[in-house]
Amino acid sequence: MNSSELAFKHLLKSAKIPSLNFNSKTLIQTAKQFKMGRQRIATATPYIAAEFGDRATGQFNWDNIPASIILDLIFATDFAINFRGWHIAIDVTSNPNTLDDKQAKLNNVEANSGLKHLLDAIGIDHSVVCLVKIPGSRKPKIQPNIQTLTQLLRQVIKGSLQVGELAL
User: Superkingdom, according to UniProt (predicted)?
Assistant: First the structure.
């Protein structure tokens, strides 16, 4: 988890916005039902084997992989939250050059192959890419940004925002 993701996690906690809980096995079974899911599993498997696999064989059991890792690598979701009854997937980035690519991946509704289908299948109502900026080398300012986060999430559930920006 990079500094932008850590700051965002702290912001969510300070705002008392609950995370959604997922089961690793269920996430993998769901992903396998979709072309995009199978492709992302194939891409993620070498990394997961290196990080979580048996040192001698590289083999691993998906049940032993944290759901947060599966959400990140396969569902392109850093945070899955419940905001006022809506389930929202959030992909946090600190790189403004990746925004268009990340948004395009989330919105791809090509038959049975886009991430949108994967997210729909796990009960996600909305998704957003959030550019998080932490100016200079100072500590992130969390408290003043709780209201900004709430406003951003309100726009997401209204369907009027797919890319947001927070300067922490």
Answer: Bacteria
